[in-house]
Write a structure and sequence with these properties.
The complex is a heterodimer of chains A (about 80) and B (about 240).
Chain A lengths: L2 H29 L1 E4 L2 E4 L4 H23 L4 H7 L2
Antiparallel strand pairs in A: 1-2
Helix pairs in contact in A: 1-2, 1-3
Chain B lengths: L6 H27 L11 H10 L4 E4 L4 H7 L4 H12 L3 E5 L3 E3 L2 E9 L6 E6 L9 H21 L1 H24 L7 H14 L5 H23 L5
Antiparallel strand pairs in B: 1-2, 2-4, 3-4, 4-5
Classes of the chains: A mainly alpha (about 80), B alpha+beta (about 240).
């Protein structure tokens, strides 16, 4: 795998992560259940776990967005150009 | 203009002065910012080529006759290589080294573009990838903290597991930036780094202690690949 292929792959993984996690959070808020750590967590059942996963996913989305759209990962985008 | 109107003398003078001015580019900041305790290090085109020479790299003087051979041998930033090719195609002569340098954390290359007719020259340095944003000690500390947080989280709290995942992701991105800034000859190491990034994200969806193991084993494999890329065998 060349540097530009790796850089493109990392950008793809970040895009994929942002989309999947955002979908999970939106789905979780609408349907009052969220998937995490191998099983579903329900709002009414164990609300603490449910909220922890929603907050955790939101943190992950923030981290991914920071790297995907921030300036710190300019090296990745530079390399992706080949 | 030479007093005898000799073009060759003017050309020699321009090249000599150009080299000296380029050397000033690293000498002046070094003298300005150095203290007795902490000597500063500057970089310039001539210094970059000199460092590469000390490292045993081939120094290429590229003209239209050897352009293709030289471009197949050198491994520099793509923008630099494009500039070298364009310059040589317009009749200039370029002097540069084979591989990117890592000089006190600065990763880049030095190259000189000379016009053989007038002696006019551009003494340039280029730094592409800047490497990661974490100091290696910080990365190890953060990785250890993330692992401990994850193990505790696997027993008590999903939020802690996801914080450990976020830490793993930060370290994975740092790993990628370090890898992209590194110039090496071994193929296939990029796949391991790519897997480390994928593991950092995939670990979120697996259950319990398994998620922590997936994420941090991936990172360890990535660090292993980096160590191989930095080894003498790959340089």
């Amino acid at each position: 795998m060349s540097s530009s292929e790796l850089a493109n792959f990392v950008i793809w993984v970040m895009n994929f992560g942002i989309v999947i996690l955002t979908c999970l959070v939106i789905y979780g808020c609408v349907k009052k259940k969220i998937y995490g750590h191998g099983r579903w967590h329900y709002y009414g059942d164990k609300s603490t776990q449910y909220f922890q996963i929603v907050i955790g996913y939101s943190i992950m989305i923030a981290v991914l967005c920071f790297f995907r759209f921030g300036t710190i990962a300019e090296g990745i985008f530079e390399a992706a150009k080949g | 203009m030479d007093k005898d109107n000799k073009a060759q003398k003017r050309l020699n003078y321009s090249q000599m002065v150009g080299g000296r001015y380029s050397a000033m580019e690293h000498l002046v900041p070094e003298q300005m910012f150095s203290t007795d305790d902490a000597p500063a290090q500057g970089i310039s085109a001539v210094k970059a080529i000199s460092i590469a020479n000390t490292q045993g790299q081939k120094i290429w003087t590229i003209n239209q006759a050897n352009l293709d051979v030289a471009m197949a041998e050198i491994n520099l930033n793509s923008e630099t290589e494009r500039e070298i090719r364009n310059s040589v195609n317009t009749g200039k002569v370029v002097t540069t080294h084979e591989q990117r340098l890592n000089f006190n954390g600065w990763i880049g290359e030095g190259y000189i573009i000379l016009d053989p007719e007038t002696g006019a020259g551009a003494y340039k340095i280029a730094g592409g990838g800047n490497g990661g944003f974490l100091d290696s000690d910080d990365a190890v500390g953060l990785g250890f903290a993330g692992f401990v947080i994850g193990v505790i989280g696997a027993a008590f709290s999903s939020l802690l597991v996801l914080i450990a995942a976020a830490i793993a992701l930060i370290i994975a991105i740092d790993l990628v930036l370090n890898y992209l800034a590194l110039s090496h000859k071994c193929e296939g190491l990029g796949y391991i780094i790519g897997l480390a990034v994928l593991a950092a994200l995939a670990g979120i969806f697996t259950a319990g202690i398994g998620s922590i193991l997936v994420m941090y084993t991936g990172l360890l494999a990535g660090e292993g690949a980096m160590a191989v890329a930095r080894s003498k065998a790959c340089q």
